Amino acid sequence: MPIDAAKALAAEPRSGEITWDRRDVQLYHLGIGAGVPATDPDELRYTLESRLHVLPSFATVAGNGSPGVISGLSMPGVDVDLARVLHGGQSLTLHRPIPVEGSATATSRIAAIHDKGKAAVLVMRTEVADADGPLWTNDAQIFVRGEGGWGGDRGPSARLEPPAGEPARTVEKPVREDQALLYRLSGDWNPLHADPEFAKLAGFDRPILHGLCTYGMTLKAVVDTLLGGDVTRVRSYTTRFAGVVYPGETLRIRMWRGDGSVRVAVGALERDDAPVLADTVVQHS
């Protein structure tokens, strides 16, 4: 079996130094659609260096750009075909606001492996800290088709009860035709998002948008709409990738207020609101 669960879970964590600066932050923000309209004061907080603050989802690309998916596939005990891999979900916990420029130590390991029968799910955990202490913790759920069935633990269910009532806010965000090409410049070079031939090998008609690009676009919509544009209020952000987005489509983002949280559902408008992000929660102050 290409995945040796015992070996992967027992492997020593990998640590490395990461750095980022304001250009990395600005490029990431542009990659998730910030800057429209270009002179809007609210958008300049994401694009102009003199006013810059950092959307917390930048943590998924800070330093080396890899969201944990590609790096997770190179861990001991893991040897799988990239064409069978999908990003199943993402969880981010913020320990304090992310600085515009910084250097830190990122420590990664396989935290869990779940047997879903027809697939395996690897949980790649990355903990990042600088000289002042912990900054953030990322968990990437890596879905590998055809690698389950060895009798392992199925793991917890990520499914939540649907939000009750009508959403507090609904916004629609267009995805540019070149969105994936711009987003990948932040470091996620998976050819699934750019190469039509590779996309066909993976079972798609054409390249799809990075799930983490949708993830960032959605968090920005929540911050701008319900959190007064204050990125420092975000405490954690979790989602399950329920479907794909094709560049050129429109995201319909529905938001429900809770006690210190926002529930979110995202669909592809042109495909009758086909689910894109589900079981999505933003915890905030």
Supply Rg: 18 Å
Global mean pLDDT:
92
String of helices and strands: HEHHHEEEEEHHHEEEE
Could you give a short account of the major beta sheet? 10 strands, antiparallel
Helical content, roughly?
A: 10-25%
Q: SS-based structural class?
A: alpha+beta
Can you give me a brief rundown of this structure?
It contains 7 helices and 10 strands. With 285 residues, it is an alpha+beta fold.
Written overview of the protein:
This protein has helices at 5-10, 22-31, 41-47, 69-72, 179-183, 196-201, 211-226, and strands at 14-20, 85-94, 102-115, 119-130, 133-145, 169-174, 234-241, 250-257, 261-268, 274-284. The chain has 285 residues and is of the alpha+beta class. A 10-stranded antiparallel sheet has the order 1-3-4-5-2-7-10-9-8-6. The chain starts with a helix and ends with a strand.
Write the layout of secondary structure elements.
Layout: H1 5-10, E1 14-20, H2 22-31, H3 41-47, H4 69-72, E2 85-94, E3 102-115, E4 119-130, E5 133-145, E6 169-174, H5 179-183, H6 196-201, H7 211-226, E7 234-241, E8 250-257, E9 261-268, E10 274-284
Antiparallel strand pairs: 1-3, 2-5, 2-7, 3-4, 4-5, 6-8, 7-10, 8-9, 9-10
